[in-house]
């Protein structure tokens, strides 16, 4: 499970980088769109990073089933909420000032909502774990790990959808927002 978790976490790190743009400044419509979108991004990136760090820590050493369950439930819940908030930010920002902007916005919202739903499902699965029955608990964790194998594909889809915002003036406007600046590299979970 540790290798699967590390793969999922590294997918999240790539996704967080995809949420950031590059450039200087853009036109007024692009600026307004970027301000709305980037306004919530920094907070959500912190939530995503914190949840992923908690998941990485729980795979290190011997942890009690109660501790594993509590951490998984909280982290998956935080991740679901954060990706839903990012979807809401894209929705609130409106149609981006891009050719085919409506399709690009709908695609990004759909991908973020799907990722949020996957984490909500993982949270429900973690809540249902019976930490008093070690064998059943281990089987439940294996089921969760199996579901987590789908995450890298979903991260790739979200990354591609968000990457479509990085065009022309909008790319420059996004890069000029503090909330959309690339975060510092997160610690690697590959040691797990």
Could you list some keywords that capture this structure?
disordered C terminus, 192 residues, Four Helix Bundle (Hemerythrin (Met), subunit A), single chain
Give a structural overview:
The chain is mainly α and 192 residues long. The protein has one domain: Four Helix Bundle (Hemerythrin (Met), subunit A) (Up-down Bundle). The protein is built from 7 helices and no strands. It comes from Streptomyces radiopugnans. This is Small secreted protein.
Describe this structure in a few short sentences:
This protein has helices at 2-18, 28-58, 65-93, 101-127, 134-148, 151-163, 168-175. With 192 residues, it is mostly helical.
Assign the CATH class: Mainly Alpha
What is the architecture at the second tier of CATH? Up-down Bundle
- Radius of gyration over all CA atoms, rounded: 18 Å
Q: Main sheet?
A: none
CATH topology: Four Helix Bundle (Hemerythrin (Met), subunit A)
Order of SSEs? HHHHHHH
Low-confidence stretches: 20-26, 184-192
Work out the number of β strands.
0
**Gap between N and C termini, in Å?**
9 Å
Helix content: over 70%
Q: Please indicate the count of domains.
A: 1
Question: What's the helix count?
Answer: 7
Shape: elongated
Strand content: under 5%
Q: Which secondary-structure class do the elements indicate? A: mainly alpha
What is the residue-mean pLDDT, rounded to a whole number? 83
Protein name: Small secreted protein
SSE blueprint:
Layout: H1 2-18, H2 28-58, H3 65-93, H4 101-127, H5 134-148, H6 151-163, H7 168-175
Helix pairs in contact: 1-2, 1-6, 2-3, 2-7, 3-4, 4-6
